[in-house]
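Budget justification aside, the reviewers requested a transparent look at the raw inputs and outputs of the sequence design task funded under Objective 1. We therefore reproduce one unedited record. The lines immediately below are the structure tokens for a 518-residue chain.
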């Protein structure tokens, strides 16, 4: 039995060994076929087959039926087909979430979740439970303002391995941190309040917290970030923060993961203001930093040995006003690169580039470093890969290490999918300075969705602005760098953030831990 509290899970989650477990007011069964309900699950098969005889839609749409078990009733949550070329493990997460929502509608407060055994996907048990937990999330602002609505159920049971439940709880606690930060409104999660939340989350854990908030330091050491922060810093509650999180696992360090998250708490577009009703939802522009904090919660809970993780959160508001930065400004980055601003709505790459440069500097001290930026960066990404998918792309050294493919495969196994894109010569040419005034052009003056290669080019900008181009595969000190655009995968608006790509990164960089638990 386990219970994660303190702004995370407010209900018990228990591993059970049989359907006859007491204390539950309903069962949710997830499967693709009634024929798999045999052995210990046979009591569920008969009423379903009887219902299907008079209503064939049960097989596709599910049903709620009585059953001769202590729980008294059950919800059948079908996955649909599992054996087609395009089916993947998300079928189980979707079915579990659908089953939970139906159970809540009919008044269940203590459901028992079960997945009929099959060997379709290796991690189907874990993904099923994670799907249910996602559906039971309650937004932070609701938990704080309406304590009586802080939880949707009193308890959740899962018929399965106790270690699977423990791993699911650790990963869900990570996604809750990400959802809390990413989904909360721009005042509840303005930069100073993100700092407050993060300090509370990691107090007493193995994750250290360091915050850069002094304006003089920010202007001197993070000039591109400070340009975005310039307008917002006049309002104390909106002043920017760069938050560093550091975890060092037990034993000799074998790999180092260095994460940079885009944390734009609200994006007005700045002087290039978002017009035409497209500004709504821009409080979700902080989901990159939210994912970084969530991943750090995963390592704080799971404590993987031999791994160091350094996370950074570039928390800033892109405000509009008399002191906002504007197109045509030339700003010298931390790396000494002269950057001409082309569009103030391309603020995410500005906020991250100097922090990325700092990570590049720190990489020289690390063991086998992997550097990554995570951001809800471009509308082009949504057009290119779709709303449920992240795009990941590597520089030369990361390509040689097969980083994108490794993360993609890990995400595929846990239902956190990514598509691999490529950074090409055209992307670097796009950002090359167009006059002798500047070294690098930050952006053109069109939306990314109207720009060819609109989700690939920003990675080239960050490489150039941060000085990572000096650490390519042809250098004496090559550094692996990957960029992950989560503009589509971060979740629907209106709706709840997903926490992408936490699951993929956890599986990719903690493989031993997963194999030991599962």
């Amino acid at each position: 039995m386990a219970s994660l509290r303190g702004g995370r899970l407010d209900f018990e989650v228990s591993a059970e060994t049989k359907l006859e477990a007491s204390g539950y007011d309903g069962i949710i069964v997830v499967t693709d076929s009634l024929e798999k309900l045999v052995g210990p699950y046979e009591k569920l098969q008969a009423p379903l087959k009887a219902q299907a005889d008079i209503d064939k839609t049960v097989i596709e749409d599910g049903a709620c039926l009585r059953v001769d078990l202590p729980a008294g009733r059950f919800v059948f949550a079908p996955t649909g087909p599992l054996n087609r070329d395009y089916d993947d493990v998300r079928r189980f997460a979707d079915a579990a979430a659908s089953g939970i929502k139906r159970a809540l509608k009919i008044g269940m407060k203590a459901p028992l979740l079960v997945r009929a055994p099959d060997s379709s996907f290796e991690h189907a048990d874990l993904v099923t439970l994670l799907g249910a937990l996602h559906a039971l999330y309650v937004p932070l602002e609701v938990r704080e303002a309406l304590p009586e609505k802080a939880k949707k159920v009193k308890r959740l049971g899962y018929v399965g391995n106790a270690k699977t439940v423990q791993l699911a709880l650790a990963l869900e606690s990570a996604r809750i941190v990400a959802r809390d930060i990413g989904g909360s409104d721009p005042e509840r999660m303005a930069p100073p309040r993100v700092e407050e939340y993060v300090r509370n989350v990691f107090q007493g854990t193995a994750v250290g917290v360091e915050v850069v908030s002094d304006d003089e330091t920010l202007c001197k050491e993070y000039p591109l970030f400070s340009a975005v922060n310039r307008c917002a810093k006049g309002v104390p509650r909106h002043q920017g923060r760069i938050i560093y999180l550091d975890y060092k696992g037990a034993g000799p360090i074998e790999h180092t993961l260095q994460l940079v998250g885009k944390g734009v708490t609200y994006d007005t577009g700045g002087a290039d203001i978002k017009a035409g009703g497209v500004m709504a939802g821009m409080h979700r522009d902080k989901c990159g930093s939210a994912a970084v904090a969530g991943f750090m919660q995963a390592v704080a809970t799971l404590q993987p040995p031999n791994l160091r993780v350094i996370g950074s959160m570039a928390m800033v508001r892109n405000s509009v006003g008399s002191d906002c930065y504007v197109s045509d400004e030339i700003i010298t980055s931390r790396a000494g690169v002269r950057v001409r601003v082309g569009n103030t709505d391309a603020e995410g790459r500005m906020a991250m580039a100097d922090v990325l440069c700092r990570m590049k500097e720190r990489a020289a001290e690390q063991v086998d470093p992997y550097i990554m930026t995570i951001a809800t960066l471009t509308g082009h990404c949504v057009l290119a890969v779709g709303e449920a998918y992240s795009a990941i792309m590597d520089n030369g050294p990361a390509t040689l290490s097969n980083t994108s493919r490794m993360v993609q495969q890990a995400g595929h196994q846990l239902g956190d999918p990514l598509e691999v894109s490529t950074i090409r010569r055209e992307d670097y040419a796009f950002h090359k300075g167009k006059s002798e005034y500047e070294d690098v052009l930050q952006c053109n003056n069109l939306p990314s969705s109207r720009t060819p290669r609109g989700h690939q080019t920003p990675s080239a900008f960050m490489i150039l602005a941060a000085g990572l181009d000096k650490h390519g595969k042809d250098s004496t000190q090559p550094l692996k760098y990957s960029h992950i655009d989560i503009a589509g995968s971060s979740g629907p608006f209106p709706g709840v953030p997903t926490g992408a790509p936490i699951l993929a990164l956890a599986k990719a960089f903690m493989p031993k831990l997963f194999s030991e638990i599962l």
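Residues 281 and 494 are 8 Å apart (CA to CA). The two ends are 17 Å apart (CA to CA). Computational costs for records of this kind are itemized in the attached budget.
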